[in-house]
Each structure stands twice: as structure tokens, then as C-alpha cells.
Specification:
Elements (H helix, E strand, L loop, with lengths): L2 H8 L15 H8 L4 H8 L14 H20 L4 H9 L10 H6 L3 H15 L2
Helix pairs in contact: 2-4, 4-5, 4-7
């Protein structure tokens, strides 16, 4: 594996847990950080609102997806040197590179995989 490939490979996981989303009740913390309602989550994950649980009864699939979103949040927090306010602002502001919608709305529309790819590609370009 060449050094660029190794760097790209290693950039998939944040080096820090600045927002503390990857500890404790990650699903609830992600929802709070991104200001996502149960309705937002149900639409994003294409599941019935009644099945959206952020406690001990959370489904494995929903938990895995919210961990993936937490990973995106932490990667961006790393870009902003751990500044939670700047990171939150980035998620809430409309972004021309994302077609004029905010990263938060991409998540709400169920396009978090596309957002993850965008973030990883952008960070790989910054940290070759």
C-alpha cells in the first residue's frame, strides 16, 4: 500500500473525540448535536417513527447508522481543531459544494453516505 492509499485508509476514523459523540449514548448525543428530531431520524433512516428509539431499545441498524454519522461529525470537528461551535455551524449552514443544502439537511434527507464521501474526500485533499 503506497503512502497516499495508507493516508486515505487511516483518514476514515477521527483521531480525537472532540465532541464526545463516540462515548456514552452516542445515538442520543448525535441527535442532540445535530438537532435531529425523531421525525427527522425516521425520514433519514426510512423507518417508522415509532421504531426510532435512542435508548437501550435502539435497533442495531439505527445504532450503526448513528455511529457512522457521529464519525462524520468527529472528522469535521478535527478539521476545526475541536471547536464544537464551528463544527455545529458547518453542519447547519447551506453549503454550495453540496448543492446549496446544509450537511445537516443531507443527513435529514437520508444522504449521509454521500456526505461521508464528500467529507472524506475533502479531508484527504487537505491531509495528503
Amino acid at each position: 500500500m503506497n503512502s497516499k492509499a495508507l493516508s486515505d485508509f487511516l483518514n476514515t476514523v477521527p483521531t480525537h473525540n472532540y465532541l464526545h459523540l463516540l462515548e456514552g449514548n452516542t445515538p442520543r448525543k448525535v441527535a442532540e448535536f445535530l438537532d435531529l428530531t425523531r421525525n427527522d431520524i425516521s425520514k433519514a433512516m426510512k423507518m417508522d417513527k415509532e421504531h426510532v428509539r435512542l435508548d437501550g431499545q435502539i435497533t442495531k441498524d439505527l445504532k450503526r447508522r448513528l455511529y457512522e454519522i457521529a464519525n462524520i461529525c468527529e472528522l469535521m470537528a478535527g478539521y476545526f481543531n475541536g471547536d464544537a461551535e464551528k463544527t455545529a455551524l458547518w453542519f447547519h449552514v447551506k453549503n454550495p459544494a453540496l448543492g446549496g443544502i446544509s450537511p445537516r439537511d443531507m443527513i435529514r434527507y437520508g444522504r449521509y453516505k454521500k456526505l461521508e464521501l464528500f467529507v472524506r474526500n475533502a479531508l484527504a485533499g487537505i491531509h495528503p
